[in-house]
């Protein structure tokens, strides 16, 4: 059987949400992509059920936020109930618009989220989608990588020549195995039984997500979207996990809340929650993202979000390297930044999981504030990388609206954006900023007030919406711009291929 051959700028392995967003972002930046997945289509299994306002900014960048919104439900709040049935801690409902320009938190049914992304990449002429295709080997050379694949349904073998490769192929990543990355293990290894239901109007269930304490088998209830509800139960020590997902046993488990007369069991599965981060995110021309790079227990609802942050961080770097002549060393900072950031969420989620058997108001609120949930606390800083530590860089930026009501990401695009007072804008050379591929936004009255509120005269924001630096005046800004110029080292635009 003759081998089918493809060429591209970036091969993306795995088309779950992280791989699909990566493929879409790369093509949005002008790169040619071959996207490979071993499954024939979106998997209809219980997985992620939450995204946040930061992830909606990524969808906004792709022009997909409006397509996704009908499938979302703004987060209604959560409660933590102790073994005596008392509510000991709560989380508030999300506001209609938070600091990211979107509600802080949403519930989502992951297959619907993925379908929006698949529809987008299938409509993009820069993306070639290869489904039912499994990568078997990757060989690296000085100018690129050659991927070997086979069809899972007996179709012709495939070879893909790519400048770079992003492995976003999940917790059992073939890419990670090929490159030999190993995990740093933070000690969690817990099987949980997860079941999704379609409920009728007769079902008497909480309107908000609920965590039920139990000394042996704590449970989590999630009001997902529309009539879809989820229950998650920590497996008891030594429990027969194959038997646990049988329908009769699932119904017995949910009997305090649901009966077969109230709902249809859609699917059940066992997920083993782990807390893992790879030791190395880049191997030459191969980079890891999503669950291939880290595994996050779900107690913060940040597993999917953490992977999408990887996609945004790696995509602008690959765009700059391949199309804008930046040095390949720009990619080295990707794993350093993302590893530290992901580790903060993973260790916090792991600790939160230990509190579910005996939750207290103080412990729950303290852990939630460590990641800045729903406006409480501050999200973590990136690991050392492409940002100005002397001027407040490395934190997630807010997204304001200008005086016309337009969200600033829509004005900036998938580029570095510089919001600054008119006085500072008057000191800069527009030609230099244009060659640096920085979109400038001299502030109108509303944005100037926003800058003043944040105690700065200029805020330089990266394409993945993290702050590069906040500068009080033109001299400090010029120093920051010079440092960024050295980090990116852009040359004249080069042709893809």
Describe what this molecule looks like in 3D.
This protein is of the alpha+beta class and 497 residues long. Among the domains are: 4-72 and 104-183 and 276-354 and 361-370, FAD/NAD(P)-binding domain, CATH 3.50.50; 389-488, Glutaredoxin (3-Layer(aba) Sandwich). The protein is 30% helix and 28% strand. The longest helix is centred in the C-terminal third of the chain and has 23 residues, at 332-354. The chain is globular, with a radius of gyration of 23 Å.
Write the layout of secondary structure elements.
Blueprint: E1 4-13, H1 17-28, E2 33-36, E3 50-52, H2 53-61, H3 65-68, E4 72-74, E5 78-81, E6 87-91, E7 105-108, H4 110-122, E8 127-130, E9 133-140, E10 145-151, E11 158-167, H5 174-179, E12 183-199, E13 209-212, E14 219-223, E15 228-234, H6 241-244, H7 247-253, E16 263-278, E17 282-283, E18 286-288, E19 294-295, H8 303-324, H9 332-354, H10 361-369, H11 408-412, E20 416-420, H12 422-425, H13 430-435, E21 438-442, H14 445-453, E22 458-461, E23 467-471, H15 474-488
Parallel strand pairs: 1-2, 1-11, 2-8, 5-13, 11-18, 20-21
Antiparallel strand pairs: 3-7, 4-7, 5-6, 9-10, 10-11, 12-15, 12-16, 13-14, 14-15, 16-19, 17-18, 20-22, 22-23
């Amino acid at each position: 059987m003759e081998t089918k051959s493809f060429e591209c700028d970036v091969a993306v392995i795995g088309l779950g949400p992280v791989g699909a967003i990566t493929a879409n972002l790369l093509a949005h930046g002008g790169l040619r992509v071959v996207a490979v997945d071993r499954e024939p289509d979106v998997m209809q299994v219980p997985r992620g059920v939450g995204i946040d306002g930061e992830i909606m900014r990524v969808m906004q960048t792709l022009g997909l936020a409006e397509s996704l919104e009908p499938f979302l439900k703004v987060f209604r709040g959560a409660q933590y109930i102790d073994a005596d049935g008392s509510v000991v801690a709560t989380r508030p409902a999300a506001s209609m618009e938070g600091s990211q320009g979107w509600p802080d938190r949403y519930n989502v049914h992951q297959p619907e989220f993925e379908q929006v992304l698949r529809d987008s990449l299938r409509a993009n002429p820069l993306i070639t989608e290869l489904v039912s295709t499994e990568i078997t080997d990757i060989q690296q050379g000085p100018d690129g990588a050659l991927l070997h694949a086979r069809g899972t349904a007996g179709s012709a073998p495939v070879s893909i020549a790519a400048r770079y490769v992003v492995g976003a192929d999940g917790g059992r990543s073939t890419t990670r195995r090929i490159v030999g990355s190993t995990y740093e293990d933070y000690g969690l290894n817990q099987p949980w039984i997860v079941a999704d239901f379609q409920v009728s109007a007769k079902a008497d269930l909480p309107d908000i997500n609920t965590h039920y304490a139990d000394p042996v088998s704590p449970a989590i209830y999630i009001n997902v979207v529309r009539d879809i509800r989820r229950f998650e139960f920590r497996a008891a020590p030594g429990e027969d996990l194959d038997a646990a997902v049988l329908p009769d046993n699932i119904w017995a488990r949910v009997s305090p809340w649901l009966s077969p007369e109230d709902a249809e069991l859609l699917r059940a599965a066992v997920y083993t929650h782990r807390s893992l981060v790879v030791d190395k995110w880049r191997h030459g021309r191969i980079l890891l993202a999503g669950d291939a790079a880290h595994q996050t227990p779900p107690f913060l609802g940040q597993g999917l979000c953490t992977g999408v942050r990887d996609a945004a961080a790696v995509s602008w770097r690959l765009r700059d390297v391949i199309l804008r002549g930046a040095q390949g060393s720009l990619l080295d900072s990707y794993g350093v930044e993302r590893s530290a950031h992901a580790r903060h969420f993973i260790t916090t989620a792991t600790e939160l999981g230990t509190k579910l058997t005996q939750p207290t108001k103080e412990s729950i609120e303290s852990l939630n504030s460590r990641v800045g949930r729903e406006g409480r606390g501050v999200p973590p800083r990136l690991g050392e990388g492409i940002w100005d530590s002397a001027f407040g860089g490395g934190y997630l930026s807010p997204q304001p609206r200008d005086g016309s009501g337009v969200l600033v990401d829509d004005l900036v695009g998938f580029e570095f954006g510089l919001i600054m007072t008119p006085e500072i804008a008057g000191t800069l050379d527009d030609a230099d900023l244009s060659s640096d591929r920085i979109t400038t936004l001299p502030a109108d009255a509303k944005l100037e007030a926003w800058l003043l509120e944040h105690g700065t005269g200029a805020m330089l924001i990266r394409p993945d919406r993290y702050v590069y630096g906040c500068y009080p005046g033109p001299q400090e800004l010029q120093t920051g711009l010079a440092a960024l110029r050295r980090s990116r080292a852009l040359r004249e635009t080069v042709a893809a291929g």
